[in-house]
Amino acid sequence: MMIIIRSLALTCACLLLISAAARSSQITCFGVLGNSGEQGRYLVKFDQKKASGLGVVYDRFGTVWDRGGQGILNHYALDGRLLGQYPLSGQPTRDDKLSIVGDRLVLLLDHKLFFMDVGEKAGTAPKNTAISARAMSFGRYNAQLLCLSPEQTPFLFDALTVKKKPFNGAKPQQGIVDLEIAPDSTAFYCDNKRQIYAFRGQTALPGFPQKAKGDRWQLIDQYWYLQSSHASILRTNYVFAYDPGVVLGGSSGAFLGHLADNHELDSGQGIAKITDHCFAVSGRSGIIHLLHWQDDKKQFEITHRLGALPYAMGLALDGKGKILCNGGAWDWTADPLSPMTDCQLPKLDQAGQVANLNDEIMLGPIELKGNAIVFCGTQDPTKPFRLQANCKLKTAMCGAVVQKTGAKYRLLLVSTDGQGQAVRLSEEGKSLAEPDEMPLLLNAKGGVWTSLALRSDGLLLAAVDGSVVILSPTKDGWKELNRWSAWGTSGQERFGPRIFIAGDGDKLWVSDRERQRVLVFDALSQKCLAVYGRTDAAGNDLVSFNFPETIAVYHNRAVVFDSANQRLLKLSFE
After folding, report:
1. Is the pTM above the cut of 0.90?
2. pLDDT at site 257
3. Rounded-to-integer distance, Cα 154 and Cα 135, Å
4. Strands (DSSP E) along 277-321, which ranges?
5. pLDDT-derived band of residue 230, with 50, 70 and 90 as boundaries?
6. CATH assignment of 316-573, given 2.130.10.10, 2.60.200.40, 3.40.50.300, 3.40.50.920?
7. Which CATH number, 3.40.1350, 1.10.10, 3.30.160, 2.40.10, labels domain 222-307?
8. What is the mean pLDDT of residues 231-255?
9. DSSP 3-state of 41
10. Of 104-108, 295-299, 366-370, 541-545, which range is least confident?
11. Residue 309 and residue 286: Cα distance in Å, rounded?
């Protein structure tokens, strides 16, 4: 069976010109990253309330299913298009699961069993059976799933009759935390000491108990697939002996000074077989990844990413066209189905603006375990990022820019409430001392800061609410010279209430969130050079935004987080 991935329009000649006088300058869209549906009716959306995946399932119609955030079940074509969404109830738990019996989906949500047929109309909620269960198997025996009652009694759930049935097999005496069932009715139990027991009827199978080598274990074609940290999948034989062991992820033994990883697949939630050489897997993020089985290496290779980009922290673009986002990376030439490549930085879900030191090295603020520190590094996987834990910052740092004065470098930082700090750096981006206080003196109090940029004349630019504030260096910090939120007299020539900025010294890029556009200005004269997006008109095609936010720039290229469309747009100013 061959999976045919649809052709996506990755480069669009959609050019928006601001006036006849500016026809020599334009912004071009070079496509979408992070959303396998790309645009329009097939654009993928996730619930903004995060929740782990349920465990991906594959149906006989050639489509896949998994949770997309707390309150949504997403249905995808294998080419990444969103086919439908279905509301889910309950609070997420670590025991939530998704399985399939024939054409019926069975869900364990908040320790209750639900079911829904795969042909139901989008928007239909799975039906609550009112049957409680602490655990549910992925596997099935004669259209029945093995479940565990709140009282620790195993029972069968018949997916076709939607009824609870007794299970006559034996079970271990220890407390059960997970279970599975094989097609021959053999029951497998994992206790709270991570020992796996197996019983066929009342008889314990020889070779058990075995130590659990991973989580969310599933039996596919007589192999167990188990999920682990560092985006690892392990394969064992029927009695849980490695066969061959790790087949994907950071524990594979391919050590080059770092562990291979994909944060979106960390602690995987489930795997499904599509063909002999194609599998689907999801992790804590609920993003589905397609895997290709390599016979010669006995390992999986990640080939495609199905899902959206609900958030984009730590967004950056370097001189080689590498795009950093959420702890992973894409090449500029990547397409909407491209998976993130390996990156050695912890998940950037608590990071601020990322600054470029040079063509390769980038750095910025990040919060880890309640501590705000500086990270630094390149996107070369053989040169891991550094976490500079000795450089303690204030919390909520959102803006960052590198200032170079002669041979000296400083990382200038600002928090959302306007508190500034400066970190002295080496040429390699290493912090040389604890941060210095950097007072930022405005003419008007208040305002929410989002981002920073530097002009070629050394003045600092800050995005505060809907204005670009220009600050001049003083002996003790920076003082506001003036600010601007308009560049003409028409209503079109004014920012909305919240903007994000980035620049290269000569040009200033502005992501105008509420007015649904991105603009490029001459940083010194404040002349508007080009606009992309339909002003005040949200949309989800390739010439529209729906609340654009964080923006990263390198020379004439920019990457923008189109937040409500849950995607990145690649733009170029020419």
Report:
1. yes
2. 42
3. 9
4. 278-282, 288-294, 299-306, 316-317
5. confident
6. 2.130.10.10
7. 2.40.10
8. 83
9. helix
10. 366-370
11. 11
